[in-house]
Design goal:
177 residues; two-stranded antiparallel ribbon; 4 helices; disordered N terminus; AH/BAR_dom_sf; HEPN_RiboL-PSP domain-containing protein
Length: 177
């Protein structure tokens, strides 16, 4: 209940600031989605490897399979063996291009966004929280000062009323004699 009162009492100049902070949070969400979706796209070309959390490019696996199969078939079916070696060369080229693409996406998309999320955004978020805490402390202090000023004003009014009551009592005593 105290928090809602303090939020209502915050100055109106904070509305543009709140909009910018919300925009920062939206950018964070967008960057997180980009990293996730980009990783998904890159991983679509890969299959799980023998080690946990390692993947192998599908084209590399096919090229290896075609190489082995072509070597076995060549002595018996020369044309088919040549075809398999040509297919292997094509898959080798595809796997190299995919590896280059993969690395470029990591270097130019994933790493910059992850760096922004883990370093820059984290720092900005901590600063925002610190500024909010400072604003809250200032608001509490300002409320306290306003309350003290109001109490001081009330005390002055009470003293003035007491003074008037004393004067009126003296006047009434003089008229009563």
């Amino acid at each position: 209940m105290g928090q809602s009162n303090s939020k209502k009492a915050m100055p109106d100049y904070e509305a543009p600031l709140r909009q910018k902070i919300q925009l920062l949070y939206n950018i964070r969400d967008f960057a997180t989605e980009i990293v996730s979706a980009t990783t998904e796209v890159i991983d679509a070309f890969n299959v799980p490897g023998p080690e946990p959390k390692r993947t192998h490019n599908v084209a590399i696996g096919l090229a290896s399979y075609l190489s082995v199969h072509g070597t076995i078939c060549s002595p018996f079916f020369e044309e088919y063996g040549k075809f398999l070696f040509l297919m292997r060369a094509g898959y080798d080229k595809i796997s190299r291009e995919q590896a280059i693409f993969h690395q470029k996406v990591i270097d130019k998309v994933i790493e910059p966004f992850e760096k922004w999320l883990t370093v820059d955004y984290k720092h900005m978020h901590e600063q925002i929280l610190e500024l909010r805490e400072r604003a809250k402390r200032q608001h509490i202090a300002a409320s306290k000062i306003a309350k003290e000023a109001h109490n001081s004003y009330l005390r002055q009014l009470i003293e003035a009323m007491d003074d008037y009551n004393d004067r009126i009592s003296k006047i009434l005593e003089q008229h009563a004699k």
